[in-house]
């Protein structure tokens, strides 16, 4: 149900038209005596909240519930790092009571948000240092973020459920401050969401305790927080999913993978599996899909993370 809602919001964004405009027309019409309705004025009173991309959309749906009017900037199936904003999206951000984003994921969003009406989820958690590959010249750090926008931490915080729980709590406080009339409802839903994420965190901890292997070789280096939380080691082939790795990087990863007995190279839905397949065949490994959740999965955040856990348990030979 929520996903149908999100898709229609995204379609509205793509068309550049006008779900919000429609709502505005509706409330304008309510001033005429013939078409006024309580429902119209109630929905136009909801604070508009913008979520930058899928994991933040999911979190805002959980915590904001039906008290907010939610728009997502990144349409399903779009790799979020490269997002460019249209005029409509920039005005959505300007009009929103709150924009929920993570600084360093989408430079266009970083530039568009106003400090007092935005929540940078990375500020709610302890971040890890950005990964650097000496071999990768002209990495995203320069081209995508721009020299002055370069951030020093890894922005993929949503792949650790315990950090997501912390973000949920903080988001509840920010929404409560933005919409005082529903403050308790935001805080209650935030507490419930944090508890659900805590349960997911326990499932990961238990499921990844007893494993034959501890090294994850991933196509796109997005799983640093998951590795940090569950005591695994991530070796990413590339930092930027759009960049082809250098032969030097590939042979370095192959060497590590062989030395650490890696049997599976992880790839992801939005990135061509070619590089991972070449590497896997070089070292006699298989490939499997691990979802970095940068775009909406077929289920939701929780089900996709549970699928990731199963994939990891199989690939790493875990018995938990
Ligand atoms: Zn990423």
Features:
globular; alpha/beta; disordered N terminus; four-stranded parallel beta sheet; 320 residues; binds zinc ion
Structure description:
This protein has helices at 2-14, 19-29, 38-44, 54-64, 87-95, 107-112, 140-143, 161-178, 183-207, 224-229, 247-259, 274-283, 301-316, and strands at residues 48-51, 69-72, 98-101, 118-120, 215-220, 233-238, 264-267, 286-289. It is α/β, with parallel strands linked by helices and 320 residues long. The longest helix is centred in the middle third of the chain and has 25 residues, at 183-207. The protein binds zinc ion (ZN). The site of zinc ion (ZN) has 6 residues, from loops.
Give a quick rundown of the structure:
The chain is built from 13 helices and eight strands.
Explain the layout of strands and helices.
Elements: H1 2-14, H2 19-29, H3 38-44, E1 48-51, H4 54-64, E2 69-72, H5 87-95, E3 98-101, H6 107-112, E4 118-120, H7 140-143, H8 161-178, H9 183-207, E5 215-220, H10 224-229, E6 233-238, H11 247-259, E7 264-267, H12 274-283, E8 286-289, H13 301-316
Parallel strand pairs: 1-2, 1-3, 3-4, 5-6, 5-7, 7-8
Helix pairs in contact: 2-3, 4-8, 4-9, 8-9, 9-13, 11-12
Bound molecules: zinc ion.
